[in-house]
Amino acid sequence: MSFQLTILGTGSATPVLTRNPTAHHLQIEQEGYLIDCGEGTQSQLLHYKIRTTKLKYIFITHLHGDHFFGLIGLLSTLNMHRRIEDLWIFAPKGLAEIITIQLKYSDTRLNFKIHFTETQTEKSYLLFENDNVTITTIPLIHRVPCCGFLFREKSKKRKIVKNTKPADLTFEEIKMLKDGEDIFNADGSVKYKNENYTTPSLKSCSYAFCSDTLFNESIIDIVKNVDLLYHEATFLDELLPRATQTNHSTTKQAALIAKKAKVGKLIIGHYSSRYKELETHLAEAREVFMNSYLAIEGETHKIREIKV
């Protein structure tokens, strides 16, 4: 029952040799969800042995280049690999036009269908759901329309314990037990007590991705109690005026959001290229919220383990 995040990129707009632009890969069950796709993301997917054949959904927070310039290259490579499965892309207005123009003038004919969904970045709403997860937008404050994404795993059914399963159970009775119900005889007595034949399902996991944004306390209620929060921390706290001027956040501001939202764990990233070492970023964040960690490219966070 997989729910794990791999960090692919931790840098910001100006390139540095030691960091790639923003990109995260979230695996839920057997499906891949890519959040942002900065330049070189496809190389990072290859480097960390993430199977693009499982990639089904792509979420772009905003249309600054360090968050989506890697997308056309990734789509082209998927096409060269003979992908035929549909792909869903969620992004602010304009991305569908950009990709369409790039495909047109490069004379690229995709073997697969792209379903574009335009995000509404000024409100929080249910953007998408499937059998495993719901995805809600998180309005952010930046120079261009921008929103983050909250992934919540849907509740799972209880598990039947095989060696206790009665031989005469009907399909409907199995369904009732998995739904947590007891099964009764015609006279009202308990025939099969749920807790004797099932075990509780795994607890549902949650992950919130908050990319480029001015410090914004209005998101606290949206991300409250999530297991893992990623929040950009472009600057150290001494550059708070610069963060405000550029609609970004500092380490302590990211940690304050985590603290007030009572999240399980915080990851900070989107580091300014001016910083060569990041120990101070971590120290500042932990002054406010102790369970803070640096985003490190290639690291995988098994979110379900955070809940144990």
UniProtKB/TrEMBL annotation:
Entry annotation: catalytic residues: 66
GO MF: 3'-tRNA processing endoribonuclease activity
Annotated keywords: Endonuclease, Hydrolase, Metal-binding, Nuclease, tRNA processing, Zinc
Cofactors demanded by this protein: Zn(2+)
Classification via Pfam families: Anti-Pycsar_Apyc1
Catalytic activity: Endonucleolytic cleavage of RNA, removing extra 3' nucleotides from tRNA precursor, generating 3' termini of tRNAs. A 3'-hydroxy group is left at the tRNA terminus and a 5'-phosphoryl group is left at the trailer molecule
Annotated binding of Zn(2+) 1, by residue: 62, 64, 142, 212
Cofactor binding description: Binds 2 Zn(2+) ions.
Top enzyme class: hydrolase
Keyword tRNA processing on entry: yes
The keyword Nucleus appears for this protein: no
InterPro entries from the UniProt entry: RibonucZ/Hydroxyglut_hydro, RNase_Z/BN
Annotated positions binding Zn(2+) 2: 66-67, 212, 270
Record-listed E.C. numbers: 3.1.26.11
Cited SUPFAM superfamilies: Metallo-hydrolase/oxidoreductase (SSF56281)
Family designation: Belongs to the RNase Z family.
Role, per record: Zinc phosphodiesterase, which displays some tRNA 3'-processing endonuclease activity. Probably involved in tRNA maturation, by removing a 3'-trailer from precursor tRNA.
Subunit architecture: Homodimer.
Full protein name: Ribonuclease Z
